[in-house]
C-alpha cells in the first residue's frame, strides 16, 4: 500500500506541530476498559508520532500531555498518569537520545511529584545536546497560567529597571513565555472530535492552522499525521492579506 507520506512536500513542512492528544478515556470505555488502559495505549501513539516527525524532519513537536485542569481528575487517574509518565520517560530516554531528539518540558513543574521531576530532569540533561527534533512536553501546563507567569516576570524586570515598559513588544512577551525559544506552531492537531483549544498555547496559536479529527488518540498513527500535514499544505495561509496579494508575492519571489 502506498503511504500518504509520498504526497507530502518536504520543502513545506510545518516547522512546529502542536497536538492536543485527546480521547484516551473514551477509547478505553468503548472497549469496556478502565480509563488508564486508554492512557497506556496512548503512549504507543506518542512513540509512533514522535518517530514520524523525526523521520520527516519536523523541527518542533509539542504534545499536550497533562493540563493544569487535569489535576482535578479523580486521584486514582492522576496518580496513574504520573506513574505512566515516569515509566515512559525512563524507558524512552535512550531511544530519544539515539534518534538525536531533544526533550523540553513546559508547564508548572512545581505541581509534579518529586519522583516525576527527578525523571524529567535526568531525561532533559541526557538529551540536552541533541540537535534533531525538539520534543516539547506540555505537563501541568495551561496557557493562562503561563501568561500570568510571564506578566509577573515582566513586572519584576520593570521594577528592577531591566526593561522599559515603553519598549515592550509582541516579541518581548513571546520571549517571556515558556516557549520563548521555539517558533510558533504552524499546525495544531486535536484528536477525538473535540473542537476547542482547552487552554493550550493561546498566544502562540494566533496564526496556526487548526486540524481536527475524530480519530481517538490511541488510534492515531503516522498515516493520520501525514493526512493532517497534507491538509495543512493545501491551505492558503493569508496572515490577514488577500489571496491576490499572496499570489503576487509568489510571482515576485520566483
Ligand atoms: C487525553 O485523553 C489525555 C489526557 C487529558 C491526560 P482524555 O483522558 O481526555 O480522554 P477523554 O477525552 O476522556 O476521552
Ligand atoms: C486537553 O484535554 C488536555 C490534554 C490533552 C492533556 P482534556 O480532555 O482535558 O480537555 P477538555 O476537558 O475536554 O476540554
Ligand atoms: Mg479529553
TrEMBL record:
Task: Look up the record and name the cofactor or cofactors this protein needs.
Answer: Mg(2+)
| Xref: Pfam families | Prenyltransf
| Binding-site list for Mg(2+) | 22, 209
Biological process (GO) annotations? polyprenol biosynthetic process
- Active-site feature positions: 22, 70
Q: What is its EC number?
A: 2.5.1.-
Query: Which residues fall in a coiled-coil region?
Result: none
Tell me how the cofactor is bound.
Binds 2 magnesium ions per subunit.
User: Where, by residue number, does substrate bind?
Assistant: 23-27, 35, 39, 67-69, 71, 73, 190, 196-198
Question: Where does the source fall among the domains of life?
Answer: Bacteria
InterPro entries in alphabetical order: UPP_synth-like, UPP_synth-like_CS, UPP_synth-like_sf
Molecular function terms from GO? ditrans,polycis-polyprenyl diphosphate synthase [(2E,6E)-farnesyl diphosphate specific] activity; magnesium ion binding
Q: Which family does it belong to?
A: Belongs to the UPP synthase family.
| Assembly and binders | Homodimer.
Sum up the protein's function in the record's words. Catalyzes the condensation of isopentenyl diphosphate (IPP) with allylic pyrophosphates generating different type of terpenoids.
Write the protein's name.
Isoprenyl transferase
Species in which this protein is naturally found: Pseudobacter ginsenosidimutans
Amino acid at each position: 500500500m502506498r503511504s500518504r507520506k509520498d504526497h507530502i512536500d518536504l520543502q513545506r513542512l510545518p516547522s512546529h506541530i502542536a497536538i492536543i492528544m485527546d480521547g484516551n478515556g473514551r477509547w478505553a470505555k468503548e472497549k469496556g476498559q478502565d480509563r488508564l488502559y486508554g492512557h497506556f495505549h496512548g503512549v504507543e501513539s506518542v512513540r509512533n508520532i514522535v518517530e514520524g516527525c523525526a523521520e520527516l524532519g519536523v523541527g518542533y513537536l509539542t504534545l499536550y500531555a497533562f493540563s493544569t485542569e487535569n489535576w482535578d481528575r479523580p486521584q486514582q487517574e492522576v496518580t496513574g498518569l504520573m506513574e505512566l509518565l515516569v515509566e515512559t520517560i525512563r524507558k524512552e530516554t535512550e531511544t530519544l537520545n539515539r534518534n538525536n531528539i531533544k526533550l523540553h518540558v513546559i508547564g508548572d513543574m512545581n505541581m509534579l511529584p518529586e519522583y516525576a521531576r527527578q525523571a524529567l530532569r535526568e531525561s532533559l540533561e541526557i538529551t540536552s545536546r541533541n540537535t534533531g527534533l525538539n520534543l516539547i512536553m506540555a505537563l501541568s501546563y495551561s496557557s493562562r497560567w503561563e501568561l500570568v507567569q510571564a506578566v509577573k516576570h515582566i513586572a519584576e524586570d520593570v521594577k528592577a529597571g531591566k526593561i522599559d515598559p515603553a519598549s515592550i513588544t509582541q516579541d518581548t512577551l513571546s520571549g517571556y513565555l515558556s516557549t520563548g525559544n521555539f517558533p510558533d506552531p504552524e499546525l495544531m492537531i486535536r484528536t477525538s472530535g473535540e473542537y476547542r483549544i482547552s487552554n493550550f498555547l493561546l498566544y502562540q496559536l494566533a496564526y496556526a492552522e487548526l486540524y481536527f479529527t475524530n480519530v481517538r488518540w490511541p488510534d492515531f498513527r503516522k498515516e493520520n499525521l501525514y493526512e493532517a500535514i497534507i491538509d495543512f499544505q493545501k491551505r492558503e495561509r493569508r496572515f490577514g492579506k488577500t489571496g491576490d496579494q499572496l499570489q503576487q508575492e509568489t510571482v515576485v519571489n520566483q
